[in-house]
Structure formats: C-alpha cells, structure tokens
Amino acid sequence: MSSRPNALIAIVVLLAALLFYPFKKTLVPEQRVLVVTKDMHPIRNAMVRQSWQDYSLERYGHEEDLFTDSNGRVTLPVRTIRAPLLSRVFGPLASIAGQGVHASFGVHTHVIVSPNDGTTSTDVVRPQPGEIVYRLEL
Q1: Does residue 17 belong to any structural domain of this protein?
Q2: Has residue 14 been placed in a domain?
Q3: Which end of the chain has fewer CB atoms at under 10 Å, N or C?
C-alpha cells in the first residue's frame, strides 16, 4: 500500500519539474553579416545593431551593437532564452490579456546597419555561403 502514494508523489514531482524547468530555446541563429559599398568594397567599423524579442515569453526586447572588421564582416551570435513549459503555455495568454487585439506572439528580430565614418577598403570582397550582405551607398 505504501508504494502507491510514493509512486503518486514521484509522478507529481516529475510533472512539476517538467512544468517549471527552464528549457533552452534558440530565438535567433548565428548570422554572418558582410557590409559593403555598392561596388563590393568592405566597410570597416560599420555598426550592425541586432534587436530581438520573443513576444510570447518576454516583456522587453534586447539589442546589441557590433562593429565590422577590416573586411566588412561581423558575426552575430546565437540568441537564446530559457523558459519553463508553463511560461510557454501561459505567456501568449498573458500577452493577450495585457495587449488585447494588439498583442504580438513569437520571435521578432531585425538588423540595422550604419556605415559610421564610411571607411572603406580598396579590396573587393565576395560573399561567403550563408552570409547576409548589406550593400550601402556612401
């Protein structure tokens, strides 16, 4: 008889652990960016601002400014969040309750590129596979 309550307690504890454990979720994968002029000359020290937010799980967004290297390249790191299953279920409902018809859901991300001083190289670069290219007019 005592094994039945122990099994029930174990199931409840396991279920609670699954509901409250903060599982990792990738919001934005790593992205390689190339910033060049219209003639494919790399722009060094260009500011690349990445913004991201999971509207279903987060109340506030994030942003980070990174700068291109001498070849006009920068790598935006993978963006992750940890959230329990309970938040993943009730987060969208809380968004609806707080925002009504204006509620947003899921991951939103965008990138803004600014050439800063517009320092370019005389080199001509070619995009690498998977690289996002921003061609700016200086």
Answers
A1: no
A2: no
A3: N
From the list 81, 71, 68, 57, the residue with the least C-alpha distance to 111 is 68
C-alpha 71/C-alpha 12 separation (Å) is: 56
Q: What are 95's two structure tokens?
A: 């968004």
pTM of the model: 0.84
Structure tokens at 96: 């609806």
Domain total of the chain: 1
Instruction: Encode pLDDT of 97-120 as tens digits.
Output: 888 888 899 999 999 999 988 788
Does residue 16 lie in a domain region? no
Query: For residue 63, what are the domain limits?
Result: 23-136
